[in-house]
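Recall the central idea of this unit: under ordinary conditions, the amino acid sequence of a chain determines the structure it adopts. In this exercise we apply that idea directly, starting from the sequence alone.
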Amino acid sequence: MALGLLGLGGHVPPVVVANAQVAEWAGVDENWIVERTGILERRYREPGTATSDLALNAAREALAVRPGAADRLGLIIVGTSTPDQPQPSTGAILQDKLGLSGFPAFDVNAVCSGFLYALAVADSMMSARLSGQGGEYALVVGADVYSSLMDPADRRTVSLFGDGAGAVLLGSVPEGYGVLDWRLVTHGEYRDLVEVAAGGTRRPLDAQAREAGEHLFRMKGRPVREYAMRTLPKVIGEALDSAGLRLEDVDRLILHQANTRMVEECYRELGVDPSRVPLTAPRFGNTAAASIPLTLRTEHERRPFRRGELLVLAGVGGGMTAGAVVVRWY
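Accordingly, the structure predicted from this sequence is:
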């Protein structure tokens, strides 16, 4: 059974945080933000809004493409590293908010690669008919609220991240379409390049941890960029090779929007025409696991994907993780 992307959904919260605000927080010039990141603005959640609330809006939009799909769901997977709470999963919370019950719903945490990991897991489960309930469809969501983790004084991170959610509805399509292949990797030896150190069993979130700022997001920018530039082309090439395809066959490359400059560096490294690589980072910033599905939805709205069009979805995340998924649009 081939699985295709039958519906797309996306949602960003209404609060726009412009570079002027970030510059004030971090004590930098607005031009520094634009030159280094290419990001013009990002969105932050309103007070009281949880990750599952953003996910719910994106999920409803994806489900609406196929009337009655919600009643025939067999699986929900949420890629997130900012869950509503430590337990239960945001997937379980989303299932309940959709008014559904009785089939698997859970989270995957691969940081900014979370959506790709969740998509690969869904493809594996649905293709092997392991969803347990025989549902026709799977819902895969990437959703994150990184504004909850930001240190406003850390110019290296607060200039990059925003909040958002994206979702895809998966269902059966004819052979030769849909998800053709994928490649996922993790290099745990680099786990300290991107992290929130406190809040787990290794380092409790106590007063000392808060005083040290260990409850906030930290990233080592240069090593992360170096990892991305050597790993992303490799996983894209391996996924395409496994599918019997070449980079020249790809119509559009949907990259994780780490920041505009990194996306630009990546397509130059790959030798891909920028017209084939959509950008949402200037408007939304880095929305972590939401980035790829949100960019998919935004690009489909701008220039609808045609039947038979070949897409590659690819990105890197903390862990360090990376992934690429090859999709023939149906």
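The chain has a mean pLDDT of 96.
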